[in-house]
Design goal:
The complex is a heterodimer of chains A (409) and B (64). By secondary structure, chain A is an alpha+beta fold. Chain A has helices spanning 7-13, 32-40, 60-67, 103-108, 117-140, 147-152, 154-164, 171-181, 188-211, 217-226, 232-262, 265-273, 277-291, 323-326, 361-378; strands spanning 43-45, 55-57, 72-73, 145-146, 298-302, 306-308, 311-313, 318-321, 383-384, 406-408. Chain A has one domain (7-408): Cytochrome P450 (Cytochrome p450), CATH 1.10.630.10. In chain B, β2 and β3 (33-35) form a beta hairpin. The chains are: A alpha+beta (409), B alpha+beta (64). Chain B: One of its GO terms (molecular function) is electron transfer activity.
Chain lengths: 409, 64
């Protein structure tokens, strides 16, 4: 008796493991396996840690289409959602980035005002001062030094603490816990405990803001709790999300971006020698495109059948939209593997696309513009204090970067 | 060129403001898009097209 093998099942059976490894010696390029998939067609199957085989979407245009499609859900609690890691015992609570509209929009709109362009621009002089003060300290301190510890992490941490109203004195505590949360290799129990620590911390802080509101983002949320528009646990959840997202991503962009520039001295020279805001802005967009530090893909699940490129994604099937390889799509970016600070890279999907696109992107851009325009000009001899092969990369996290970057000048 | 925006769709990314500041603004209370110039002059057309292309919520429509 012969049986017909469903081609989709057959493909699932030989689906490669995801996430994939990068090539040795190419710390800035996406895994070669992803490139192969992009050349083969719009949809591929990959195998996750739990044996599930969601679709992997590699093309830039397809990703933008799907991320804007209401038949695609970001709800992590739907069956078929491709999770990055096992669910911790008892769950962790879910913030708005893992919910769909209208609930997502209701919560997101409560925290959008501080990230409006004019509000972010008003913060620029304060961010410049933070950056200048840290460079003063760097120059007065030991040489060589770890740039991550001395500069890349403090800049965005100080900024997000100021914006939220979180005491920076507590930074060791929240940085340690957020490191655990974004590490893929910790146990569900460890992740749950770290998340619990941060929730407890933010809940205490929320209590203080409810009693004594001041002019900061958490006090704004506290006001909504008092008005009955927001549950206190939802407010704490949002605080944790903004605190983690506000420092981990930008810190990695600063350190990894600096390392990438060390490896491309002609491009570093461009930034060192310019004060043209247009070139600085285009440099930031290009580094965001080229480095794509969020390298686990946007995770979604189909809620209806969706046809794409002659294939059908069935309702209930998971989707991973790999933004790292989309940012290297040769149909959109000429010579995509070349770092070219002068190109127009503004269409990149480093911040995602669709209604879930990164809320903090105006702040992230402004911080990176200030940093890239200041650091190399103020320390023109800044250079790595070790070989590329000795630098530890974050292959195991949901945010890519370096654990350490020893520098000298 | 005629521009329309859908404030219900808007997710306040602010990218339209960065692309074309004379045409788009944001509401103070929640960053939602405000259309300043529904019929922008030809010299702003390219910036407005870029604003529509980068809007993550597809909230900007253009009619030529």
């Amino acid at each position: 008796m012969t049986s017909t093998v469903n081609p989709v099942d057959e493909r699932a059976a030989r689906a490669p493991e995801f996430p994939m490894a990068r090539a040795a010696g190419c710390p800035f390029d996406p895994p070669p396996g992803l490139r192969g998939m992009q050349q083969e067609g719009p949809l591929a199957k990959v195998r996750l840690w739990d044996g599930s085989t969601p679709w992997l979407v590699t093309g830039y245009a397809d990703q933008r289409t799907l991320l804007g499609d209401p038949r695609v859900s970001a709800d992590i609690n739907r069956p078929g959602y491709p999770r990055q890691a096992p669910m911790p015992p008892g769950g962790t609570g879910v913030s708005f980035i893992l919910k769909d509209d209208p609930e997502h929009a209701r919560l997101r709109r409560m925290v959008t005002a501080p990230f409006a362009i004019k509000r972010v621009e008003a913060m620029r002089p304060g961010v410049q001062k933070i950056v200048d003060d840290l460079i003063d300290e760097l120059l007065a301190g030991p040489n060589p030094v770890d740039l991550v510890e001395a500069f890349a992490l403090p800049v965005p941490s100080l900024v997000i603490c100021q914006l939220l109203g979180v005491p920076y004195a507590d930074h060791d505590f929240f940085q340690e816990n957020s490191k655990v949360i974004i590490n893929r290799n910790v146990t569900p129990e460890q992740r749950s405990a770290a998340h619990g620590n941060l929730i407890g911390y933010l809940d205490d802080l929320m209590g203080e803001k409810i009693a004594h509101p001041v002019d900061d983002l958490l006090s704004g949320l506290a006001g909504r709790v008092t008005a009955g528009e927001l549950a206190r646990d939802e407010a704490a959840q949002m605080g944790v999300l903004l605190l983690i997202a506000g420092h981990e991503t930008t810190a990695n962009m600063i350190a990894l971006g600096t390392l990438a520039l060390f490896e491309h001295p002609d491009q570093l020279a461009l930034l060192r020698e310019t004060d043209d805001p247009k070139l600085i802005s285009s440099a930031v967009e290009e580094l965001l495109r080229y480095l794509h530090i969020t390298h686990s893909g946007r995770r979604r699940v189909a809620v209806a059948d969706i046809e794409i490129g002659g294939e059908v994604i069935r309702a209930g099937e998971g989707l991973i939209l790999a933004n790292d390889i989309a940012n290297r799509d040769p149909d959109v970016f000429a010579e995509p593997d070349r770092l070219d600070l002068r190109r127009d890279a503004r269409r990149h999907v480093a911040f995602g696309f669709g209604v879930h696109q990164c809320l903090g992107q105006p702040l992230a851009r402004m911080e990176l513009q200030v940093v890239y325009n200041t650091l190399y000009r103020r320390i023109p001899t800044l250079r790595p204090a070790t070989e590329l092969e000795r630098i530890p990369f974050k292959h195991d996290g949901s945010v890519y970067g370096v654990y350490e970057l020893p520098v000298t000048w | 060129m005629k521009v329309t925006v859908d404030q219900d769709k808007c997710v306040a990314s602010g990218q339209c403001v960065v692309a074309a500041m004379e045409v788009f603004d944001q509401r103070d209370e929640d960053g939602i898009v405000v259309l300043l110039t529904p019929e922008p002059p030809a010299e702003q057309a390219e910036d407005v097209r870029h604003a529509a292309a980068v809007c993550p919520a597809l909230a900007i429509e253009i009619q030529d």
